[in-house]
Amino acid sequence: MRIALASSQLVNRDIKYNLSQMEHYIIDAKKKGADLVCFGETFLQGFDSLNWCFENDQAMAIPTDSNVFAEISNMSAKYGIDVLFGYVEIDGDTLYSSCALISNGELYHNYRRISKGWKEYTKTDEHYREGDTVEVFHYKGKKCVIALCGDLWDYPERFDLGEDLLFWPVYVDWTVKEWENGTKAEYAEQASKCCPSTLYINSICKYDALGGAAFFENGTVKKELPINNEGLLLVEI
Q: What is the reported pLDDT for 74?
């Protein structure tokens, strides 16, 4: 299986632009022979797309049966490649930081972040919640798990499920110096506590996150697209 990890620009609160970025990398990944292309945490709306007022934020979030979700599913079917992406999900009157895997144009797996670092929890109410389930799912012959950013730091024991592959979309704003002088090694080591093979995907946002992608294996960086670079990292699993 060939997986493309997208270190892609996003714009907060601009779903139309972020969808265009997704389509660009979906096409590019397909041309490069990938079976799956992965995007970072809350890539669809942007990590800083909410203002913690539910009356406003509910309009930014999307349900899995929305037209936007259908558009991504149609891209997957049209170009013949699966897509994994983070987004702000609304289910009834509840918001989650979620990650969806679209396979063959259909929702295959949906995960809701279990750690609370995605929100300003001193400002939020009962409308902003975390998921409570971490489960292995089978994908193309592999046992897989999804974790979102702080999940692996707050609850590493919950992701040690004997899986073959862990997807780790994040949104982090380390500087190049911080990342190269120890932080990258810390992420690789933390991932190894949960799974021998982890795919790390960060996004790029102006004046904030610097992107990058990596394949961590047994606590080491086996392959990477360096921080502050836009593009795809191709990994064979």
A: 97
